[in-house]
Fold these 3 entries.
Entry 1:
Amino acid sequence: MFKLAKKWWKYLTAKLTGSFDEHADPKVQLEQAIMEAKEQHQRLKEQATAVIASQKQAEIRLNSKIGELEKLSANARQALIMAADAGRAGDTEKAAKYNAAAETIATQLIEVEKDIESLKSMVLENTQAADQAKAAVAQNSRLLQQKIAEKSKLVSQLEQAKMQEQMNSAMQQLNESVGEDVPTLHEVEEKIQVRYAKAKAAAELQETTVESSMLEIEQATANVEAQGRLSELRAELGLDSGTTAAPQVEPGT
């Protein structure tokens, strides 16, 4: 029973997720993805800041211990010198007192030296961790910039896709019948082409008729000129129009 319920839950989750992804606005999803990436980068920077701060604190403590060690070393030397001076002066009580102080300082020196060695290891580890944190932040920053650039590219592609979808929808509406009394664009185009073809045919026919009339006029003009020329030739020959001249016979023939 539990396994069956678990299967149904996974099925419903997948179905709801698919339905959500199908109807979700890609632009909003891109903004959400970039926002999540920025928040993750901020968390990484905070973690890196904490690691670097630990490294800085360890360095401060190490420097402080080194300064304490130098001071104790100087005090130990001074106590030994004063003990030696008191011994040479025959003041055994002061010599013992200064030697005891030198021993106490030496014990403190040993403890400080141990602390310094421990702090050196801590500083080394923290420095490596800080370097890794800095590298992680730098790498994540580059990835974030890439995501932002990719987001701008995807938003541009999304706007182009929306524009193309709108154009496709507009063209589909133009090519489809809007109503019974409204012709489609294709039908209007065919009507215009038919009217244009008829107009071109009528124009060509008119041009042919005019050309025929012009040809008849030119032929008539040519005939008149030819008849006029023939009349001139007949007059020069002394021939009457419409008759044929008889041949002349010389006397004595």
Note: The chain has a mean pLDDT of 78.
Entry 2:
Amino acid sequence: MATCKLLSYSAVRVRFVLAVVLASPLALADARPQQDAFTIDAPLANCYDFGAPGLGRVLKYAELAMRHRVSGLASYYSAFFDGRKTANGEIYRNRQYSAAHLTLPLGTWIEVTSRATGKKLRMRVNDRGPYVKKFCIDLSRAAAKDLGLDVAHDRRVSIRIIGLPGEVPLPE
């Protein structure tokens, strides 16, 4: 009897995670025209490819993403921090890709997509911040430049978790 309840709870939990992940792109479409109820924006809906091998990893990442802020405004480091230590002990370099996030585990691999330019970059979270509430992620200068965020008027980004600390990131 307890096994049936556990399986039932697990099935409900998986369905909830899938529903939230697939529904979140529609909730994020604040500036887009209204879409038909049965169509989903393909780039956002395919944020996590559910048909790929390693479905367990993808569901784990989707569940982790629900507990952290994974979209919003991006900022980038000042030149002042070049050569200083990050939260995990590495030396920050302006010319390398790195990111700071307040709550994601250090060492997490992420894919950051600029909503203005559509460009994507993969990098690792190696620092804590930003400490200003309106920003969700702090990028290195090189990452901000390659995403086009240093000149864009719209600095909103979407963050996709592609690997946990110690794991190989998901393939592109």
Note: Residues 1-12, 14-46 have pLDDT under 50 and may be disordered.
Entry 3:
Amino acid sequence: MATSKTSKPSTPTQVKEALIWLERKGTKKNRDGMARYAIVAPKAFGVSVADIRQLGKKLGRDHELAAALWATGWYEARMLTAFVAEPDRVTPAQMDRWARGFDNWAICDTLCFHLFDRTPHAWRKIEQWSAKREEFVKRAAFALLASVALHDKKEADAPFVRSLELIENGAGDDRNFVKKAVSWALRAVGRRNNTLNAGAVALAKRLAESSERAPRWVGKDALRELTGPVVRRQLAARRG
């Protein structure tokens, strides 16, 4: 049967074309920049996030394509999945599988911020991953919590109140990429409204007084923002 000239290319063809496009956009300058920001990836072209998003917009949402891009192992192709995968078709098993493949903070945060937080499984994974030992899986729990807190304007306070316990438990992890995500989550929850701000500030103060280094850092880092003038003005404006 003849193929229509307007038919969509096959998934393998799209993957091949995407990799060629990404390779052409890659530069040593961008690869060096990745290294400076502690973005370590075994296979990377060195493409800016802006260019990756441009390609994602061109490709559109296509879940099979996203899975095929992820399977290539290329850093930029995996980043691209955040903008190509269909959130309502992402399964819990797929989230677990991809999270286990996180090897740097950028891929972790991008998928949490642009894809995983839009799935119906976000809260379940926040709780599950917060108890994991793997560094970037555990980071994903708190990056995902921060993403939900920042993006889901309709969610009630109750899940976020419960999440403060997860944050408190996670604050004891002294690994740099984990504790920074824990602080991000605490700050994001505390910025939602006055009620959550009060709970987040109380937790931040408690952590800041800890005799242990990691929770003390998280507490002080979050406290500076949550009690600062910018957040205070934002909360006052929302209340008004």
Note: Confidence is low (pLDDT under 50) at residues 1-5.
